[in-house]
Give the backbone structure.
Amino acid sequence: MTNIALSRRLRGTPFTRRVEEAGVAAYTVYNHMLLPASFGDPEGECAHLKEHVQVWDVAVERQVEVFGPDAEKMVQLMTPRDLGKAEVNQCFYIPMVDERGGMLNDPVAIKLAPDRFWISIADSDVLYWAKGLAYGFRFEVEVFEPDVSPLAVQGPKAETLMARVFGDAVRDIRFFRGRHLSFEGRDLFVARSGYSKQGGFEIYVDDFDLGEPLWDALFAAGEDLSVRAGGPNLIERIEGGLLSYGNDMTRENTPYECGLGRFCDPWGSIGCVGRDALIRVERDGPSRVIRGLRIHGERVPPCRTPWPILSDGGERVGQVTSAVWSPAFDTNVAIGMLDRGYWEPGRTVWIDAPDETRPAEVTTLPFEKPDEQRG
Ligand code: THG
């Protein structure tokens, strides 16, 4: 693997210097920015995340702000999820689709005020889609990317660490809720959320110069909690069934195929983009769905292009889009899509991986912990 040539287009973050001091070993590119992918030992980092607490530079989770009298109408147009009962300071995982019902992004929407939303995006250019909709529909809103950089604090000891830095008020924040809390005299939006299944918080840092003081405060307060720098961990997120836009789903997929049907209500009062297409797929049912797979055999290589999934007869019945060795499950865990007829959990299929063809077992997502497995 060659190095990444750095330039203005590959934006750094308020935490980049600290991330490099912490020994970042690999970056990935996400929303035209650098996302720390590894500090040299992904398996050790996964185990540490499940036991302690980590601080993640997830500034790549860019915010698209929609502000103005038509903000609510505009955000509702962008998702089939019903936001009618949304409260201020509430977060929502929202499928975002195009006019054909194809996934454009799977962001977290945050209602900061009745007329102000942040859309915390995955890796695609939502800003331009939002600006186009606002212009085309003549909405009375401003749409822009504020200079906000989320910092995630994840792991079982996250609440203890956050309480030391922000006070006991963090303990009262429920899942996917947030509130403004003070750090060095500045109010920062803090939510109980994050791209892991280990629990934790995300701090929306809206002042570049606060990045390093906040990072340092978390590490000073967390020394006895074994706090470490980390990042979204491939092993943990596959085990937990967290989807990655651009990998596990693209514009080719509807939210129903992605297992996100529970976040869709296209019939409601709402006239979201893609409404008719989504009503059609909901009625007919998807022709393929996302599933977990236990891929047997030795450790798989990185999944850089989709790996065909084959039936016993050698017919192509799906594809694997994320795969990694899981020490906790003692097998390769993977996420992929399977055609109708092949998606029931327990079925055996064949994975045409670059090194060899391997048998795999279809599973539900998230993966069930080894000690929770039946029979
Ligand atoms: N936090 C914030 N922004 C983000 C992400 C995040 N933007 C990019 C990316 N992650 C968006 N994708 C996801 C995917 C899953 C979740 C959040 C964002 C997630 N899912 C929970 C789950 O599947 O268990 C539950 C969601 C729910 O029940 O509402 O958290 O992580 N700020």
